[in-house]
Amino acid sequence: MTGVSESVEGATWWQVFHGAVEKSTGWVNAHFLARVDPSGEPESDFNLRCVGTEPFWSFDLTAGQAIFTGPEGERLMWRASPWRQATGFGPGQRFAIELGSAEHSHEGWVAVSRAQQFCTDGMSDLEYPYDVIITIPRGDIIGGCCARRP
Questions:
Q1: How far is CA 63 from CA 11, 34, 37, 83, 122, in A?
Q2: For the segment 24-59, what is each residue's pLDDT rounded down to a tens digit?
Q3: Which candidate, 147, 41, 44, places its Cα nearest to that of 95?
Q4: For 103-141, what is each residue's pLDDT tens digit?
Q5: How is the chain split among helix, strand and coil, in percent rounded to 5?
Q6: Where are the domains of the chain?
């Protein structure tokens, strides 16, 4: 599951992906899903896709690289550190990722927390499991929602 869900006519649908097939995503009715191992440790360091509105932007974190796409289509790229877990929380609950480049070891931060309630972008009916705050080198501080990215 990516963590993105949507309610349609009283039914909850979850976005899912198949890890063995590149970029293979789809939707499944929650009625047909069950937790595989409820006692298992949550994963960390998985790929993330974050979005925000007013203005629209996206942030993709994949394999140690971060790409921010702004409202005018500008693209900024950074090196992304491994997740740094917040003390006192389980894996994948609250963490930070440092952004850097070849010129500067530190250029910004991504702070992610598992939402107590689902995060919504205010424009679609999608619900995301993570809240995010991003500081980017040009000084912007932006907030939005994130989900696991295939």
A1: 34, 28, 26, 12, 29
A2: 777 888 777 766 555 555 566 778 899 998 788 999
A3: 44
A4: 877 888 899 988 677 888 777 778 888 899 998 777 788
A5: 0, 50, 45
A6: 46-148
CA trace torsion 130, 87, 34, 11 (10° rounding): -30
Count Cβ atoms within 10 A of the Cβ of residue 76 and give its class: 0-12 exposed, 13-18 middle, 19 or more buried: middle
Rounded to whole angstroms, how far apart are CA atoms 150 and 147? Answer: 10
Which residue pairs, CB below 8 angstroms and at least 24 apart, start in 15-21? 15/147, 17/148, 17/150, 19/150
Rounded-to-integer distance, Cα 17 and Cα 53, Å: 25
What backbone torsions phi and psi does residue 99 show, to the nearest 5 degrees?
-105, 135
